[in-house]
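Morning, I've got a small favour to ask if you have a moment. I've dropped the whole record in just underneath, so have a look.
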Amino acid sequence: MAQDADSCDPIGTILIQVHEDLYQLKEKLTNFPLEEKGEALNIQNLETAIKRTEMGLRIHIEKYLNVVNHNVLTTPVNDDNLYSPHTSSWLLPAVIDQKSFVFPLESEGKLWQTQRQHGTFPHAFPKIKQKIGLNVKIMQDPENIHHRAAVNANYGISLPYINQRKACVKVQKLIKGSTIANLTVPPTSHRTDPYFTPIPVPQADARKGILSMIERGLIPPTARITFQNPPIIPRAAPLHNLDEAHKIPTAAPFTIPQKPQLIPVEATKFSPKKRRSQGKGKRSRGHHDRKIMKVTTPLTAVKSPWDYDFFIYNGVIDKTSTDFLAFKEHFHLSWGSIFSLLEHVEKFLRDYAIPEVKIKGNNLVAFLPEFELKHRLTRYDFLSLLENPIHIQMMLNIPGQRYKGQDGRSEAANKIRATWKCFKARKLFLIYRQQKWASGVIAIAWLLHCHKTRVKKILKESRERHLENFRIRAKHLAANWNRIRTSRRTIIHIPSLGYSLPVRQNIDDFNIRQNMQLGRLCDILDANVSVIYICSHQMNDELLLYYNKILSLQAAVKSGNLEDRSDLQDRFKIITPEAINIFPKHHMCLATYLMYSPKAIKRIKNLIQGKQAYIVSGLLHRDDLAVADMLNIPILGPEPEIAHLYSSKSGSKWVFDSADVPVPPGVYGIYRHQQMLEQLGQLVIDHLEIQRWLFKMDYEFGGNGTAFCDIPSHLECYDWFLKERSRYGYEDWRKKWAQEPALVKISEELAGILAQHAQPVNEKRFPTWRKFLQTFLSQGGTMEAYPPVESVTNLTVDMLIEPNGEIRVLSTGDQLHAEGPFISSGTTMPQTSVDPQVLTSLCLKIGNACKMRNVVGYFSVDLVTFIDPSTMGQQVWATGLSLSYSDQLALTQLTLYLTDGHLDCSFSTLKVPCFVPKKEKKMSCLNALSVPSPATSRYAVMTTQLKHDNLSLVFHYVFLQMCKAHGIGYDIEERQGTVFILYEHLKRNKLGMLTIGEDLQGVLMTFARNLFIIHQEISAPNMQGETNFKTAIDDIEAILGVTEENKIRFEEELKQSKDDKNLSKPDK
């Protein structure tokens, strides 16, 4: 530290040396002999001049050190010769060897130039600097003639000639330059770079000290320094032995020197700061002891602080006790503050009726600074002053202790009064808070109600405006339909399923369900049609390429040559609304997704700009009207309310009743449990031959809302019913008076039979009859009879009511039931179960009934046919109506696209032109015109419901290559084969399949063979997953068995008829 100060600023040391030299000069002049030259020397004047010079130098030394040096005044400690045997009170050497300091004669500018560069010495004393420099030269060489003349001129003193000094002075060579060696300082960039590796420290720099190396940057300022030889070595402190007797003298027997008498007070003044940094409860006695013992002399016995403890009895200090007097005498310098604190302690003890406490004197004095700031005494502060605070704290914690002391009764009364007031205020506050909370809830509810009402009003007005615009555009479409359907137009297909939210939420993979009608793209078969297909999944490049290849086969199918394929990408567009990625789990219908997709809407607007366009949706939703209003184009379909009404099970019964078509026995519009039991009992009594009864919810589809129960087989009184009917006869049995006893008996059993034996079709959604019944009654539904035979065939007929009122039958098909008799998993097209003329007549009646109810667009009718056992005739019942575009119609469009055929529903035939080989094409034009082109029939098996969990393990291109290797594909020349419908590229567990063949039996066998091969290729022996491939194969095998049986029976009947004819000829 001293070395650092010396290297940085030597001027302070020089001035101190000058001061000491003047002092020595004065001593020598005082002892100078007067007889040397025979001259009289005025010693008094010389002493006066030297004193004046010494005083001036001292003043300048103090000013300079105050301004320049910011550290503690020290002297260099490197050279031991600079120190004298004893030191002064300032720790400065009293005698300095003249050989240690050599002052160059021309060093004045050098010494002060350094200080000017540092800018630390004031520049207001140039004369003082010159005077100090002259004094330094005089002290260096007092024998010099010029120096003697200067002293004589300035002070009027003639310096004597001193012979002894000549022998001590040594002539030294003057050297100009810096007297300080260069120190190692790293660059600034290295000192501020945290990643810089510190440079090694030389031994010379290490001797300068740790502070010097930190200031120069050799040691980082945040470095953790550990001394190999620590400057402070801890050792055990001697403590008082508790076994020895400890006596407190009556008077203070110690004597303290007069000078350090104030040291104990100062120690008590500064020691609380150090103790407070360690906590109030841990005030160190040893530290206080060391502070006092450091400044006291070891000649007298010093009394330790804990000897000044004293007792307080019943809240009053005994001021005559020896302990208290010793304490007061020891700390009399700060007694004013101590007296105020003791008054608070006494009051505290009296308030709590504490009989006896022992006060720690050192703790009390240590607490004084804090007490002077707060002027109050807390319980914690009071306990910190005691020797045994735990016992006193237990006493303070006793309930009611405060009221045992002084003014206890008044304090208790005040406490009771304050508690009562607090109780009343708390009670009023709780009432106020409850009222405020209630008012806030009411206000928020009212604001929400107003906002909800306002939003509802806005939505209602918006929907009314959309509906009004829809009706205006529908009228315009109807008026111009004949022109539109024959001109160039754009059809926007939105295969949206606009069911209610509870229905949509319970459909697995709802978005995949809305993407199963990709066959709509085949509307481009008409050269005047362009298609925009709204897809519920983002299609990757692989799927887009697949459908591009399928749709490019149009020209190749007509010519029979694969090389004639044409690119039709400009005639169809597949658009995915961006809102599907924003709302992935909201179970929205596709129209809603499109409504919230401004980018998709903008793209559609650009595609249809300046063109004739209309929308073909699925089951219409009110958001379809909003989309149509955004695009300003009409919709080929009915109003959403009409579509939902007549697509329900009860609504379809109204249409069938008005169309006067046969329907199964049943009732509809059921919303109460008692109503259901009463009408079901009446149905069972009226139709005892019906073994199974169906329960269908109004707004479910695909068999999800269907349950069945074989009621007669579980009725105990069923045999009695049959006897009663045979006794009364068929006509009288239908009268109420004959059925009344039967109704009483069946009403007792019916509820229990349904609870135990009714079985929902979708057991995952409705595991019990109770849950099914709850949803059934909330939606409403119908009860109807199931045909009383084992062999039943379901049919689906697709129809179109054009805007100009024309009704057309577009497709017919017999249903396949792979997952049960109530769930359709595919169809065979065209249908072969019912006489086409009878079926067409029946469907046209239903179409006219729909037309009378303002139904426009595509719809499908579900029917069931069977052989009535009572009449042995074929019976056809209408069972369902759906005012939407069906999956069967989409696959029919794909079949016609791939075969270039024509479907005649009036005869249930699919005719395709026969392929003419190239050799026959070389015939003359006359022969070609004279011979009509032959045609042949085709049958198709189609499904969109195939699912297999292992399909997700195979990519689409691998799957297609696998099918190709097994001969599963489509032959353009023969116009038969298999085509797959791929929905999406993520899960890949569902697909559709279309198989086309020349006869129904052959195409069913091909379809089953394809399923078997695919199942074998993608399945493992221990396959864990869900699939309907096996059940589909079993259903087709059952159909093939029935077909083979019917074929054999038909051949036998044909042979029998021929034999009958041969036998009848001789008679003639």
Q: What stands out?
A: The chain has 41 helices and 24 strands. The longest helix spans residues 408-479.
